[in-house]
Amino acid sequence: MTGNQLALLVVTLFTAAINVGIAAADLARARFVLANSAEVGVPRSWLPWLAVLKLAGAAGLLLGLCDAALRTVGAAAAFGLGVLYLGALAFHLRARVLYNLAFPGLYFATAAASLTLTVSS
Predict the structure, then answer these.
(1) Distance of CA 5 to CAs 29, 30, 82, 114, 119, Å?
(2) What residue numbers bound the domain in which 87 lies?
(3) Other C-beta atoms within 10 Å of 32: how many?
(4) Which of left, alpha, beta for 29 (phi over 0: left; psi -120 to 50: alpha)?
(5) In this structure, how many other beta carbons lie within 10 angstroms of the beta carbon of residue 8?
(6) Mean per-residue pLDDT for 84-94?
(7) Rounded CA separation 89/11 (Å)
(8) Chain-centre distance of CA 93, in angstroms?
(9) What is the C-alpha separation between 25 and 20, in angstroms, rounded?
(10) What sign has the CA pseudo-torsion 83, 16, 107, 53?
């Protein structure tokens, strides 16, 4: 296994894991999720749909690791998660909720790293 392949594996598994985790928090309507979504102007009715997108992205990332022929699925999933988190960053900026901007920023960065490593491998 080359260094690039190892980086792809570690970063993509981490990205998938944190997306499963935050999707579970969305579905459970965790207190911090409800507070944050209200603060940035995301309706509660969106939470299950956002969770589905995050879970679909995580599944796509994992599929992309299974076989080189499915690598485009992983790239598409990483791209989709990146777009999702760009939207989250935009909602935070629009609402001027900057104190916790690092969270959507981290999710965006991991998606971008997964996409970069997938495309380069």
Answers:
(1) 36, 35, 21, 11, 11
(2) 3-120
(3) 10
(4) left
(5) 23
(6) 97
(7) 21
(8) 18
(9) 9
(10) positive
Tell me the C-alpha distance between 16 and 56, whole Å: 10
Q: Encoding tokens for residue 6?
A: 């190892």
CA pair distance 47, 96, nearest whole angstrom: 20
Does this model's pTM top 0.85? My answer is yes
Which tokens sit at 113? 């790293």
**What six digits make up the tokens of 118?**
């997938």
Angstrom distance (rounded) from CA 57 to CA 35: 24
pLDDT over 70 percentage in the chain: 100
Copy the structure tokens of residue 104. 């959507």
Structure tokens at 34: 């409800």
Report the first-to-last Cα separation within the chain, whole angstroms: 12
Give me 91's structure tokens. 């909602």
**Cα atoms in the Cβ-side hemisphere of radius 13 Å centred on 93:** 8
What total of structural domains would you count in the chain?
Answer: 1
- At residue 121, the pLDDT reads 84
